[in-house]
Specification:
It is a single chain. By secondary structure, the chain is of the alpha/beta class. It is 32% helix and 25% strand. Strands 6-7-8-3-9-10-12-11 form an 8-stranded mixed sheet. Strands 2-1-4-5 form a 4-stranded antiparallel sheet. The radius of gyration is 21 Å and the shape is globular. It starts with 5 loop residues before the first strand and ends with a helix.
Length: 329
């Protein structure tokens, strides 16, 4: 169970994209970007969502924000179904949900000043007078570690880390409750990543924020997340408290991601799990989706598509062979 009240609940969410061909765009297949996801996030918590590029985690983030409608399922934000909201109600809810983008370069309009970029949300939602908006922008710039006197500068005048702070300031200007962090560190140097992680944690405490932290890097997720969901081919294959998942992984894919984290010891063998990550192949719907790449695959994995099962309190795994995978790292 979650600690604290539930802010976000995702139930059976699917997002499919049709594959078409020909002049009349005849549908010949479907890309299942998100394929039946159930998640809950409590107020003030950070849920880490990890997986390889292309697994559907960013698509899920866009569906949560209402930027794309789900093919099936429900996204409940503070008890309200996002897909059922329109007009002023949707406008109000979007003020309470913001996003920090992956690329601090392309996500900022090079023709706008920093003050205009950060304050755009205040302008759209008609919050305060122009003078009050400018003062609010200066305050949030100071909070995220930027110099308020640089309010009239343009994005190209800042470093990559500073630009990401601008993106963070833009997300916080409206004082949201939920912030989706979509790979916010992947374009930054390692030393800057540590600074941004610490900043995000401090801001969470100060503004009582709830984070959905999307990343492909488990070494980053472990430092900021309360709970972690592992996503593979549009499905959640493991969900647990961060400490439990890192010390007792139950799914072979989770174990492979953990083994992919760089180590200081060059003699530690990873060949067994490295092969699993490099061996790709098709997976039929009736099979376990990870079966073609799984070093622990058994004959029953070719016949049964597993469901999420609770192997210990709060630790859910979608694997028939979790008891053979679990090992203390």
């Amino acid at each position: 169970m979650l600690q604290g009240s539930e802010l976000l609940k995702i139930s059976g969410v699917k997002k499919y994209y049709p594959i078409t061909e020909g002049l009349f765009r005849r549908e010949i297949g479907t890309v299942k970007a998100v394929d039946g996801v159930d998640l809950e996030v409590g107020r003030g918590q950070t849920l880490g969502l990890v997986g390889e590029s292309g697994c559907g985690k960013s698509t899920l983030g866009r569906v949560i924000l209402g930027l794309e409608p789900p093919t099936e399922g429900r996204v409940l934000f503070d008890g309200q179904d996002i897909a059922s909201l329109h007009g002023e109600k949707l406008h109000h809810v979007r003020r309470r949900m913001q996003i920090i983008f992956q690329d601090p370069y392309s996500s900022l309009n090079p023709r706008q000043t920093v003050g205009r970029i950060i304050g755009e949300g205040l302008l759209i939602h008609n919050i305060g007078t122009p003078v009050e908006q400018k003062e609010a922008v200066r305050r949030i710039m100071e909070v995220v570690g930027l110099r308020p006197e640089h309010i009239n500068r343009y994005p190209h005048e800042f470093s990559g880390g500073q630009r990401q702070r601008i993106g963070i300031a833009r997300a916080l200007a409206l004082h949201p409750e939920l912030v989706i962090c979509d790979e916010p560190l992947s374009a930054l140097d390692v030393s800057i990543q540590a600074q941004v992680i610490n900043l995000l944690k401090d801001l969470q405490q100060e503004f009582k924020l709830t984070y959905l932290f999307i990343s492909h890097d488990l070494s980053v997720v472990r430092h900021i997340s309360d709970r972690v969901a592992v996503m593979y081919r549009g499905q959640i294959v493991e969900l647990a408290e961060a400490v439990e998942l890192f010390h007792n992984p139950g799914h072979p894919y989770t174990r492979a991601l953990l083994e992919a984290i760089p180590l200081l010891d060059p003699n530690r063998s990873k060949e067994h799990w490295k092969a699993a990550m490099e061996t790709a192949g098709p997976s039929l719907p009736e099979f376990c989706i990870f079966r073609p790449r799984c070093p622990q695959s058994e004959p029953e994995c070719e016949k049964i598509s597993p469901e999420l099962q609770e192997i210990s309190p709060g630790h859910w795994v979608k694997c028939l062979a979790y008891d053979r995978v679990s090992a203390r790292l």
